[in-house]
From TrEMBL:
It comes from the Bacteria. It comes from Nonomuraea helvata. Belongs to the metallo-dependent hydrolases superfamily. This is Amidohydrolase family protein. Residues 4-220 form the Amidohydrolase-related domain. It holds the Pfam family Amidohydro_2.
Length: 262
């Protein structure tokens, strides 16, 4: 079974936010840790706090195309337009885009959604929970792009049950076939220790809604307080309902299909 982490961050600088406590996190660090944990590949979402992270992502994918691929980003300011999409996609290892929209209204980015739709791109998103219904509307209007919701759309700073207060809005997105979710950073919302049983019911409800072809394992490893291997075995050994073909899809094959990483 090939194991692919749906979201990590690689960067060289020392200016990471405090909740990303493994800093910096270099190519060499990641390869060492991936080998120790049995991780075959990882999708690098370049760190938004490091202006050099996109270039570093290109270098990671160029050096290790069998280990790293990238969902890149660019500033969504007044200078951003469709030409930037093709500019980024021309870079080695760049399979799609990923944006943190905590300070941007998704409803004001029709040019971006149209560009992604025309190119049938995967686009990762981190949004406020109140924007989830809007994301559903956008996905319906642009059905050829493929969205990936970070961290089950949960805040990185909340524990259960607050971290799942938006769950009904998230589950409603399952009606849109071009929306998938990343089960990334799940241990961070747990109220107990490994195997984080406090999260298991939440995971089952999301899995029942989205299925193995639209729910993907990952870590956001640089802010996890557990090991990468524990992030794996939490899903491969501690969830009896996740097995067989569903487990293979969940742990990597489904993500590879979604983002076109052959």
């Amino acid at each position: 079974m090939q194991i692919i982490d749906a979201q990590i961050h690689l960067w060289e600088g020392d200016n990471a936010p405090p909740h990303h406590w493994r800093a910096p996190y270099t190519i060499e660090n990641a390869l060492r840790d991936m080998d120790e944990a049995g991780i075959d590949r990882a999708v690098n979402c370049p760190a938004i706090w490091d202006p050099g992270a996109n270039d570093y992502a290109v270098e990671a994918a160029r050096q290790h195309p069998d280990r790293f691929a990238t969902l890149g980003w660019f500033p969504l300011d007044e200078t951003a337009d469709e030409s930037l999409v093709d500019h980024w996609l021309d870079k080695p290892g760049m399979l799609g885009l990923r944006f943190v929209l905590m300070a941007t209204d998704p409803g004001e980015l029709d040019w971006l959604w149209e560009a992604a739709n025309q190119r049938e791109l995967p686009v990762g998103l981190m949004v406020w929970p109140q924007h989830l219904p809007l994301i559903g509307d956008i996905a319906a209007r642009y059905p050829q792009m493929r969205l990936l919701m970070d961290h089950l759309a949960a805040s990185p700073f909340e524990k259960l049950p607050e971290a799942a207060a938006h769950l009904d809005a998230l589950l409603a997105l399952a009606d849109q076939p071009n929306i998938a979710v990343k089960a990334t950073a799940v241990p961070s919302m747990a109220t107990d220790e490994y195997p984080y049983a406090s999260t298991h019911d939440l995971l089952r409800r999301v899995f029942d809604a989205f299925g193995a072809e639209r729910m993907f394992w990952g870590t956001d490893i640089t802010r996890m307080r557990c090991t990468w291997r524990e992030c794996v075995t939490m899903f491969t050994e501690e969830l009896p309902w996740l097995k067989g073909k569903d487990l293979e899809l969940f742990m990597g094959r489904g993500l590879a299909n979604w983002i076109g990483w052959r």
